[in-house]
Every structure is written in C-alpha cells, then in structure tokens.
Amino acid sequence: MSTARWAKVAALAAGIGGVVAAPYVLPSYVVSLLTLVFISALLAGSVNLLAGLAGLVSIGHAGIAAAAAYGVAWAAVHDLGLAAELGVAAAITFAVSVVYALTTMRTAGIVFLMITLALGITVFGLALKLSSITGGQNGLTGIRRPEVVSEWWKFYFFTAATYGLCLLGLAVVSRSPFGLMLRGIRESQTRMTSLGYSVTAVKFAAVVVSGAFAGCAGVLLAWNSEFMSPSAASFSRSALAVVMVIVGGTGTLLGPLVGAGIVVAAEYWLSSYVERWQTVLGVVLILVVLFAPRGIVGGLEGLARQFSHRP
Amino acid sequence: MIPRRGRGRQRAARVLLVALVLVFAASACAPDEETTGGGTEGTVKLGFISPVTGFVAALGTDMRRGWEMYWQQNGGKAGDVTVQTVFEDDTGDPEVALTKARRLVEQEQVQLVAGPILANTAYAVAGYVAGKGLPTVQMTGADDLTQRKFDPLVLRVGYTSSQSNFPAGQWAYEQGHRSAVTICPDYAFGWESCGGFVSAFVDAGGKIEKQVWHPLGTQDFSTYVAQARQANPDVVFIGSAGGPDAILFYKAWTGFGLKDKIPLVGNCCFADQVFLREVGDEALDLQSFTYWSEGRDSAVVQNFVKAYEQQHKEIPSLYAAGAYMMAQVVAEALKKTGGKIEGADFINAARQVSLSDSLYGALTFDDTNNVVGPVYLTRVERRDDGTLWSVVEKTFPQVSQFWTKGKDAFLKHPVFSREYTGQ
Fold first, then answer.
1. Are B60 and B89 in contact, with CB atoms under 8 Å apart?
2. What is the interface pTM, i.e. ipTM, of the complex?
3. Could you tell me if B77 and B204 lie in one domain?
4. Which of A29, B184, B208, B340 has its CA 20 to 30 A from that of B350?
C-alpha cells in the first residue's frame, strides 16, 4: 500500500476510535450534541446525494424526514410496537418521496429548487393542520426509543452505527452505474437523452433513493427528541441541511458531516454564549463560498492533491 | 465522490464494517453515569429557557426581564437560599429547546427548569425534564399540559388558553348578545382560545353564527372581517396570539367601519402593549378578557409597572409579568421547602402556595397544577401621562381551568380543536 492509502486507513481508524471513545470521555450533553450531528449529517447526506451527483438542490428535504418521524411518532403514540413504527415510517417515507419524485422528475435547477421548497412547506402545513393525527402545533409526546437503545450512550452508538451504514450506502450509490448516470445528467441532460437514458426515470429513482436516507434521519430524529412537532418540517430545517452541504463540500462524502458539525456547534453551543449566532454562521457561509467554493472538505481534498503532486 | 479504482475502496469498506462491529461491541459497556441536580449548600441553580432570538424574540426577551426583575428585587434570594439562574435561548424551535434543556440539566446541573413559552417548545422541555425526575415550571397556555397530559412534575404558573375566555362567553350572553362570530388563528392556541369563548357562550344559551379561522401570519384580514360582517352577529370575539396579526386585523376592522357597529371583545393577548403602541387612539375603549392588566388598581401591580418602566422604558407585557410570577411562585415554594428541590415534593409545595394579591391577583392552584385565579374584563384607557393601557372594568374571581364544569366532566370532552370548540 502507498503512504497515501496508509494515511487514509489511519485517519479512518482514528475517526472511528474517536467516535467510539466519545461517550467515555465526554459529558453526556456533548454526546447528545454529537448524536444530533450524526442525524443532521444523515439528512444533509441525502440532500448531498442529489445536489452533489445530479446537481439538483432540494430545499424541502426536511419534509421527508419529518414525514418519517411523524410515522414513528404516530405509531408510538398508538402503542403499535417497534415493527409498526418502522413500517409506518417506511411507508410514509416512500409515499412522500414518490410525491416529491413525481413532481420534480421533469425539472432541474431553480424549478427543482422551488418545487421542493413548496413541497416542504406543504408537509409543514399538513403537520400543522391535521391535528387529530399530528397533534398540530402542540406536537406529539409520548414517543419512546426502542428498549435496547433507550439510554443516551446506547442511542449515540446506535445513531453513529446507522450513520456509518448509511454512509456506506451513499458511497455505494455514488460509485454505482446509477451514480454515474446522475453525474451524466448533471453534466448534460441532452447528451444523456441521446445516449438512450431516460433522464426522467433516473431522476425519479434518485429522489426516491435520497428520500430513503432522509427517512432514516427522520426515524432517528423522532427517537432522539422523543417528541415531534411541525417545526421539524420547517423551511429553516431544510435550509440548514443545504447550508451543511455547502459549508462541508457539495459532492464530497464527508462534507455533510463536517457541515453538520459546524451548524450544530453554532446552533446549540455558540448560541449559549453569543445571541447573534446566526450572524456568525452566515459569515462562515460567506467565507466558505468565497475562499473554498467546494466547501471545507472539497477545499482540503484539493490542497491534499496539490501537495501530493508536488515533486 | 469521484470514482476511483475499486481495490483500496473495498478494503476501506471492509475496515469500516469491522469498525461498525466494534462499535456495537463497545456499546455493551456503559460509561459512568453522571448525577443530575447538583447545587451546593444554601444555593439552588435554576434553568430558564425563553426565545430571545427568532420569530418570537420579543416575548422571550420580556420573559427574561420579568424573571430577572423578581430576583433583583429580592436580592437573588428566596428566604435564606441564594438563587442562581442559567439562561438559555430556544429560538422558538422545540428541537433547540429540548437540546438546551439537556444542556441545563446534564451540563449545568440545574435543579429546576422554567419556561419556555410556545406550546410545542414547552411540551418538549417539560417532557424531557420531568423524565429526568426534575420539576419544571411553565407559563405556556397549552390546555392539555395540566389536563389530559398532566404530570406531577409540571406546574403551570399561568392560565390555560381557554381559561380566561370562559368568562368572556358567559359575560357576552349576560350583556344581551345572542349571536356571535369568533375569529381565531388556525392552530392550537387559537382553537383553545375560541373554544373557551364558544363553549361558555353556547352553554349560556347563545348561538355561534360563524367561526372564522385565519392562518397565523395573515397579511390581509379583509376577507375574514367581511365574513364576520356578513354574518351580522351581536358580538365578535377575537382570540389573537398578538403581534402583527392583531394589529393588521384591527386595521381591517376599523377600515370596514365596524368599530362602532359591532361590539368586539378580545382575549388575553389581543390588545397588548405592542398593539396599543402601534394602533394608538383607535384602540381606546377596546374590551378584553385577560389575567394581566397593567392598569389594575393594586399596589403590587403598580410597583412592578413602575420599577419595570424605570429600567426598560416601557410598560411590562403579559410575558414579563408571567415570568415574574413564575419566579415568585418558585421563591415561595423554596421558602416552604427550606431550599430543597426534590422532584414532585417541590411541585407539591409550590401548589400549596397561595397569594392574596399578585400581578395576577388572588391566586391558588388546583390539584392538576394549574392556577385558579381571577380573570379581568379590561378596557383600554389613557394614563395620566398619555400612554395607553388596560384598566380593570370587572373582575371574575377564582376562575378554574375547568370553568364551572368540574374536572371529571370537563376532561370527558376532547381538547379544543378546529373540529371541537364545545358546541
């Protein structure tokens, strides 16, 4: 193996070691923030799948995650058991993703953006209005995590492991022929059409696959807070997921994780000390866009490549 | 995610898989548990959550001021116990509120959490904090917090959203009004506010011509006001959450020339100070049913208003008064328990607190941890210095969250919603 590969394996081992060690060395509150980072990163990862590969930026993905979370919450409130919680969540995620996919599969660019925005707001509105199912503005209480992961540190490991598996899944999708098709669509739709691909069908599938990851994030979200209310589907949640992708690096595998780390740190840690944490986050976003247009991870990868190519 | 040759990737994937197995293996052993609820001898540490940024920042800021003012006036002490507060901002988002509550409980080791204000944030925080076995004090209106979702660790120092509007319904009927139109925002607070008015008005014998629901954050109220005018009722009840909605509604109302044509009755939060500052003289003589009247003829209220005005250059809002009340009840309870905060015992002590006069008036608690206290019919008047404020016209003493129905009969009904307003 080359030194570069050794360095990669070492970094991976160090990363995983850090993740495993965290609950033993850090206070439980910090661990709960890390849990939140993984959940946010998973949602951002699903946005990144579309944005990075196919160039389709969605600002309504929190809607899919919230729909899945409501599925869990609804089943939990009605005491239907774990299997039903996951089943309902999967069914709702699939249904909502199909609606997202059907309405956006013929669009690209700004139109795609606007339709996902509208869909996200629709989910938010439904969550608010269907109060007999969703509890309306008051939300749903009485959700409990599955027994085996009920404690904070177990749930942390569970979330980390789920994120790890989803990350593998995202990497596989990205490297598959399907991923290549999406890249092709990003580069030139007309060329893909003339090569005999159905751009519409590929986009449909891409949104549904991305929705599945968002749904996973939603399930974790409901279990993490053990509470569900419409604000999980709000525009700001969707927008923050996009911010995570941009700050971390669009199209990079670990970008969403880094972005989620920064956003969560600003939202939950910085805000305890600085009232204008949103301003700080805004400045960070501007700086990243100006000086590292490919995001933090993208920028670092570029630097690493430059150094390794130096004679 | 640029594709590269497969070999090393496969190996990396294998490493990752092994690592995941290790993660599961590691999760078999638990880290050391942290204790919760610290605090040293003679000192208690309290957490206070309110939204000081975001779309309800104005309410959260007022709350913080009210809470601070109580401890400032009392030297930061409750009896011999020194009280220390850690403040947090929830931005009006339940996910943030919950995480901030975690920080307060797990990191700051607070012994009690007070706030936040919005119903969804309050439910999220109360659920978590009570789950940790710690008491929480709330001022949000959400009916079910002390009704169908009652928790012995949660005390509401405040009124349910419907509570102060029951007297409004009965009073309207007694005034000779037989038909009414209600206008409320289309979410839980609005349903509960209108539910209070509608159920009492109908019980008394009145008839609801129409219930108008408008989305929160409506810009143009003319269609809603037109609907109310068309029904031509004897009285219109508006249950507003305050803010721009209240002001824009009233502009449409006066614009349609209805000010002197159809009597209008507001709820707690309609003609508040923000509203009065913006609307000005057009608001004179507006009648509301509320539990906070800044112009009430009571030394307790006037001293508070004076001190608050000196410090912040404005008349205190409902939210400042509400947070002050939370602090006062916590302090009284601390005096009873000798500075100990032990779960439900503390809330039980707090529930025994009875105040002969307070910012809200003569106050006790019922056995599901909610205030039993007066509701005031107020009228907007001009103070000597020209400022507008609300003075008490009539007092309805000892109003319960269950109105006159009694707890069991009341709780047989579902919570008020768009579908069920007690008709």
1. yes
2. 0.80
3. no
4. A29
